[in-house]
Design brief:
6-stranded antiparallel beta sheet; globular; Immunoglobulin-like; 3 domains; 545 residues
Length: 545
């Protein structure tokens, strides 16, 4: 019962917090599957700049469910600057992988395409700001003035005669909401929209268990068809926006040039044996895998370049090694996927709290995975002992973190822990911006004695402010696949703090009250409910031992 109440309380608080937030969008009609990307052969473009824009947009489209729609405010409140999840960092297409979802919105997507293609930001990443960016408009129209079918036909003809590949097509259907789409030519649009309308559904957390792609392909004809879509004559305002009119001297970035030359129809990822939430101990091996999917009708010949991380030693796997440079020259057959892996070992003289990371390129385009932090972990043997203790939890008289310490001790490790209240409240500080303190918003406190125990990326709560380094990597919510045996989960709603111990096998031990090992379904529900708490953190006690 207490787990159900905690779940309901967390979600109710979160729903109340998010009520009315974001720039709402109508539910778009179902769009066809994007299918495979076209190769450059046979396609013509007005200019190299437009080709680079279209190819970059298609690279986002190819990531499907790896790029999630989320217009929820991370920080919002009276006199508090609004920061959206999509703003945490500008994502290139290759940032989104099966191990790490990125986030965007309709106008954020169009902004990112231009940013990745030309390196400039036109500072208009909401539909409202796009409407007001009149210096980029080539055509705008208040549709409410159109009455007769003859007038409608004339407006439609004018609209269709003006649009060009690379244009942003903007509609607004009330004073606070609208939609932005990127026209790529040949009667097609690439856009970002929540598949079931609106922003991420925090009441069901569906996209944690059922990933939903954000970027889709549609036809410009659908604008005129009406029904369950952005129908031209149901909106009050439409505009055609051409950012290159404002930035006529924009130059294509090297990344975009290489994407056009080498990576059309290629979906590349760099994956790690230690995905988000997992850390590596000193002396532990990390295996990186390049996954390259070729959707073309012809073979693809590519060069892969990587560098051995400075705090690791190369073990095996590269096609050739020159000092610290790793290299592969590969041919990926048409309509197939190939993988190429290499292994490094974390140096014994590396520092706990640092991370293993290297930049890599495929076909001259940066393709990187997330940092692997260097921390102590419990062994598989100790993890198995913890699981057995959790299965027989009735034999213990302790509760809370005292129980966690005893389970650690029975497994052969002694850990030092303060009270749950001191740890979670002492890990955060009030958010300060422009010398003003916001006591209802929090950020991690690097000066906290518990800071080093916190698992990178696995902390949060709606009121958590943006911390420049850690929030770049944090996920929307935790999943059991990101936890390691021995991790302690702490969550607070108002003044009530709850504590849990992850014992492996996708199972969590509830430490408070009458301790109980949760079922798989209950573990999943608990992790989802934590998104509704004021604060939550995951600590890995052995990190600081």
């Amino acid at each position: 019962m207490k787990r159900i109440l905690a779940l309901l309380l967390g979600l109710i608080m979160l729903l109340g917090t998010f009520a009315g937030c974001g720039e709402g969008e109508k539910k778009p009609a179902e769009t066809p599957d994007s299918g495979k990307e076209d190769e450059s052969t046979g396609r013509t473009f007005e200019s190299p700049e437009i080709e680079a824009l279209v190819v970059t947009a298609e690279a986002y489209l190819a990531r499907k469910s790896w790029l999630q729609y989320d217009q929820a405010r991370m920080i919002a409140g009276d006199a508090t600057p609004t920061t959206f999840r999509r703003d945490i960092h500008k994502n290139s297409p290759e940032d989104s992988t099966r191990q790490f979802n990125c986030y965007t919105t309709c106008s954020g997507f169009t902004s990112d395409v231009y940013y990745q293609t030309f390196g400039f930001s036109y500072n208009a990443d909401t539909t409202g700001s796009l409407q007001n960016a009149v210096d980029m408009h080539v055509w705008s129209y208040y549709v409410t003035t159109v009455e007769t079918e003859e007038e409608k036909a004339k407006v439609q003809e004018e609209f269709m005669s003006l649009i060009k590949a690379g244009d942003i097509l903007l509609c607004r259907h009330d004073s606070s909401s609208g939609h932005a789409m990127l026209y790529i030519g040949d009667g097609q649009i690439i856009h970002s929209a929540a598949p079931d309308g609106g922003s991420f559904n925090y009441s069901s957390c569906k996209d944690l268990t059922e990933p939903r792609g954000s970027v889709a392909l549609k036809t410009v004809d659908s604008i005129w068809q009406g029904g369950d879509n952005y129908y031209f004559f149901e909106e009050f305002f439409w505009a055609i926006i051409r950012p290159l009119n404002k930035y006529p001297d924009a130059e294509i970035t090297d990344q975009a040039k290489n994407r056009v030359a080498n990576m059309q129809g290629i979906i590349a990822e760099k994956l790690s044996s230690h995905p988000v939430g997992f850390s590596a101990d000193k002396g532990e091996e990390i295996t990186y895998t390049f996954s390259i999917k070729n959707t073309r009708e012809t073979d693809a010949t590519l060069e892969i370049l990587d560098t051995v991380p400075s705090n690791a030693t190369y073990v095996s796997g590269a096609q050739s090694v020159d000092g610290t440079t790793l290299k592969w020259n590969v041919t990926v057959p048409a309509q197939s996927t190939e993988t190429y892996s290499y292994t490094v070992k974390v140096n014994d003289n590396s520092n706990y709290g640092d991370y293993v990371y290297s930049e890599s390129t495929i076909g001259g385009v940066n393709v990187n995975c997330r940092k692997v932090y260097i921390n102590k972990n419990v062994s598989n043997e100790i993890g198995e002992k913890m699981f057995k203790s959790a299965e027989d939890v009735k034999k213990y008289s302790q509760t809370g973190l005292d129980l966690a310490k005893q389970i650690y001790a029975d497994a052969g490790l002694t850990i030092q822990l303060d009270t749950a209240e001191n740890i979670i409240h002492g890990s955060f500080k009030a958010y300060v911006r422009n010398n003003k303190t916001y006591n209802s918003h929090y950020e991690l406190d690097p000066a906290s004695p518990y800071f080093k125990m916190i698992v990178p990326t696995m902390y949060g709560g709606y009121y958590t402010a943006i911390s420049p380094e850690y929030d770049k990597l944090r996920t929307r919510g935790m999943q059991s696949t990101q936890l390691m045996a021995g991790d302690i989960l702490l969550a607070s709603v108002k003044d009530k703090v709850s504590s849990y111990l992850y014992v492996g096998g996708n199972r969590i031990l509830e430490l408070d009250g009458k301790p109980e090992l949760l079922t798989l379904a209950e573990t999943k529900d608990l992790l989802l409910s934590m998104m509704g708490y004021d604060k939550f953190i995951v600590i890995r006690p052995v990190i600081s031992q």
